[in-house]
Specification:
The chain has 163 residues and is mostly helical. The chain is 77% helix and 0% strand. It has five helices and no strands. The relative contact order is 0.11. The protein binds heme C. Heme C (HEC) is lined by residues 36, 39-40, 43-44, 46-47, 50, 74, 81, 99-101, 112, 115-116, 119, 149-150, 153-154, 157-158.
């Protein structure tokens, strides 16, 4: 092979690699975007389950059985949270408007898992306590779940709303 052909071959390889890499990045970005959309929808659905629970505590709306039902739904949702936070889908990878997920999530994945487990544990406890029907005990556990379950993750791992 003479020098020119060698260089041409090399250039071709470099160009093809470049195209391949670009293609991968594009599909990664699309996957990332989908994960962000899905986890935001999941959070909204968790929030929707939390609403009737708060209404029961605040103004006696609904029943303890409703609380148990929605606590179980939140508990089931915790099984889907972690998978919707693949690496490369936080702020820094996407704009502040697209996501509020902080890089701290992937720097401290064990801590993020622990925060997820806190909501799993506290929602399970709430479902069990609600089954007993003691309104005072329910109110207390709702407070614990909100603080440790939601706040325990949002505080370290969720950034401020984009302006
Ligand atoms: C393990 C961590 C974790 C737990 C537990 C958690 N969240 Fe979140 N939540 C997040 C993160 C991170 C975001 C930001 C997601 C993004 O913007 O990509 C978020 C976003 C949200 C949003 C905004 C959704 C939107 O419109 O974009 C709501 C509402 C919400 N969470 C409600 C709750 C409630 C209510 C609870 C407790 C019952 C809860 N979350 C528990 C991590 C968590």
């Amino acid at each position: 092979m003479n020098r020119t052909i060698k260089l041409t071959a090399l250039a071709t390889v470099v160009a093809l690699t470049g195209i391949f890499t670009l293609g991968m990045q594009t599909s990664d970005a699309a996957d990332g975007k989908a994960a962000i959309e899905q986890r935001r929808a999941l959070m909204k659905s968790i929030s929707k389950d939390f609403k009737p629970i708060k209404a029961y505590v605040k103004s006696g709306k609904g029943s303890a059985a409703d609380v148990a039902k929605h606590a179980k739904a939140i508990n089931a949702s915790t099984g889907k949270i972690l998978a919707l936070f693949p690496k490369g889908t936080g702020r820094g990878d996407f704009s502040d408007k697209e996501t509020r997920a902080l890089a701290a999530i992937w720097k401290d994945w064990a801590g993020f898992e622990k925060a997820n487990k806190a909501l799993a544990d506290e929602s399970a406890k709430l479902a069990s306590i609600a089954g007993g029907g003691d309104q005072k005990a329910i109110a207390k556990q709702v407070g614990v779940m909100g603080k440790l379950g939601c706040g325990g993750c949002h505080k370290p791992f969720r950034g401020a709303k984009a302006k």
